[in-house]
Amino acid sequence: xxxxxxxxxxxxxxxxxxxxxxxxxxxxxxxxxxxxxxxxxxxxxxxxxxxxxxxxxxxxxxxxxxxxxxxxxxxxxxxxxxxxxxxxxxxxxxxxxxxxxxxxxxxxxxxx
Length: 112
Hints:
Layout: H1 13-20, H2 25-41, H3 49-56, H4 61-71, H5 81-109
Helix pairs in contact: 2-3, 2-4
């Protein structure tokens, strides 16, 4: 099985805490789950509150709406810009490491 190059991402607790200070637990959980979803899928669903509600684990539409009213401001067209930056940076690093590994193996073991 091939290793997923994006199975983990950098986390900056101070930045997160500063940007979510004063949020409710529901807002915090929804935001975190949507960041995880964007990392694995590239973006969160657009104009699909039912799917976003499901990703967040909400069963009550009213509770979800209160959280989503705050959290949606962190996403533009289904993308959180900081997460997108980190995702692109991680992919670039992965490609560089993969290429370096191939070059190292070739130098050590030849073309076979």
